[in-house]
Amino acid sequence: MSQPALFIAHGSPTLAIEQNAYTSFLRQLGQETLKPPKAIIIFSAHWDSPVQWLTTDRLHTTMHDYYGFPEEMYAIEYPAPGSPELSEEIAAIFHSHNLPYKPSAGRGLDHGAWVVLRAMFPKADIPVVALSVDAKRAPEEQYAIGKMLAELRQQNVLVIGSGGLVHNLRMLDFEANGPAAWAAEFDDWVGEQLKSWNWRHLFDYDRKAPHVRTAIPAYGKEHFVPLLYAMGAADDDRLAVKLFQDYQYGSLSLNCWRFGGS
Question: Among candidates 132, 156, 140, which has minimal Cα distance to 232?
């Protein structure tokens, strides 16, 4: 049973307590649209490191890695199981491709991971292995790391990249009634490259994409790059379908792309 790879925007941490069109979409995606996965591999924008880490825990704790949010946000737990067996398989794949990596025990799932997973799989009963991203790697390398994991999709393992295509906190407009034109133009350009699987242009997004300095400031690249890890994991299919698109605060894009699968 094959799974797709997904890129999912995790938006604001308050997504965990919101009820809106996006949370309804994520719930339907996990509970009705997808075939139940055997396990989940998730690359989170909130684990950015020059070292390739992967979790080895048998049970994950929940990280509340944010501040200044409603008190109820700090009481939420998502005790998803881990899968040391899948971690070992991923480690073997990385070793075979000469990719240095380190095992991580006891870190827990950051909000880039658990907020999305809790919306999709609220029972927290599917094993999860979390992996770090490296925003400073070349796009080709980010894609290649995802590609290493493509074979696991054929074993009913769901691969997710969690981030956000437009992520500039300084440009948020809390009075906005719709998307900012520059944000929509950037998202549309990315979408065109994904639909045609034009990885040459996409790898050069830093020079070719409109409004790229505004959409992805230097401090925000870690939110864009999970897209490339997820895309690489479907290199064998090279099919991209937009499943959802919306915006919060004018420019915080909430989007979900499916790569491969049906």
Answer: 140
3-state helix, strand, coil in the chain (%, to 5): 40, 20, 40
Distance in angstroms (rounded) separating the CA atoms of residues 135 and 142: 8
| pLDDT tens-place string over residues 19-77 | 999 999 999 999 999 999 999 999 999 999 999 999 999 999 999 999 889 999 999 99
Closest Cα partner for 172 from 246, 69, 251? 251
Would you say residue 175 has pLDDT above 80?
no
Coil/strand/helix, residue 257: strand
Angle at 254 between CA 244 and CA 47, to 5 degrees: 120
